[in-house]
Amino acid sequence: MNNLAKMVPVPSRAIIPERDLGSTPILEVSHLGISFGGLNAVEDFNIIVGRTEIAGLIGPNGAGKTTVFNLLTKVYQPTRGAILLDGKDTAGMSTMQINQAGIARTFQNIRLFQALSVEDNVKIGLHNQFKYSTLNAILRLPRFWDAERKAHDQALELLSIFNMEHMANDTAGSLPYGAQRRLEIVRALATRPSLLLLDEPAAGMNPSETEALMANIIKIRDMFQIAIMLIEHDMRLVMGICEGIAVLNYGKIIAKGTPEEIQANPAVIEAYLGQKKEA
């Protein structure tokens, strides 16, 4: 699977896909950090993500990767540094405001409404797109039914990305683990993000499911023309679809580059294996 773009340098010494050179990066993070009780969980984190880039954030367990996602989505407010989304400073924004501004995410531990149907889980992601008054909803007036019809159609269209439209009426909690992972991605897409954050999307998937996921991540990027940033331990997935990769260790970036550069980087090898590569 060779869908990787040529990566080119930009003035900040970062690299982005060549196709994104004429556009403002969707994400620019500078000197980001957070401390908990005097301990620096993330320190001096800097990254730029191109508008249609598939980027990877990797590192050993406990390196701070999910903490970075929590900072980007304002689950945690940064102690220091700046986050620009589409050129706009996100300082002071809440998690909801960040989502409305264009960042959606999935979680390391699946967070679905287990008792609701598959379709209703997707409709929750669509809630900002359809407005009607409480009176319309109570009296079931035409505006309510029009919004419901549109939400139903859009939910099925989004589910079709993963060929899940036939599961629309199933209870989310009854789905196999891999299907629940896919449903969480669909629900995130329903919010119409410009940047999709995937936290270990292949966790618990078998090799064939992972192969399908790789193809679908590329499909999503191409279909919606959005950026995707993922945390993942499956190096075959990371090296197969990520264009730019940042490696985190003890809360600090120790390497950034293309898949080829990352695989050959001695600091990365040492972080993962605990020893330097022999000559």
Task: List the SSEs and their pairings.
Layout: E1 7-9, E2 15-17, E3 27-36, E4 39-49, E5 54-58, H1 65-72, E6 80-85, E7 88-89, H2 95-101, E8 103-105, H3 118-125, H4 134-139, H5 142-159, H6 177-189, E9 195-199, H7 207-224, E10 227-231, H8 235-241, E11 244-249, E12 252-257, H9 259-263, H10 266-273
Parallel strand pairs: 5-10, 5-11, 8-9, 9-10
Antiparallel strand pairs: 1-2, 3-4, 3-6, 6-7, 11-12
CATH architectural designation of the largest domain: 3-Layer(aba) Sandwich
Total count of strands = 12
Lateral strand order in the biggest sheet:
8-9-10-5-11-12
Choose one word for the global shape.
Answer: globular
Distance between the termini: 30 Å
- Provide the residue-averaged pLDDT: 88
Q: Give me the CATH superfamily of the largest domain.
A: P-loop containing nucleotide triphosphate hydrolases
For the sheet with most strands, the description reads: 6 strands, mixed
Kindly report the CATH topology of the largest domain: Rossmann fold
Structural class: alpha/beta
Strand content: 15-25%
What is the count of DSSP helices, taking H or I runs of 4+ residues? 10
Task: Supply Rg.
Answer: 20 Å
Give the SSE order as H and E letters.
EEEEEHEEHEHHHHEHEHEEHH
The first-level CATH class name of the largest domain: Alpha Beta
Query: How many domain regions?
Result: 2
> What helical percentage do the residues reach?
25-40%
Low-confidence stretches: 275-279
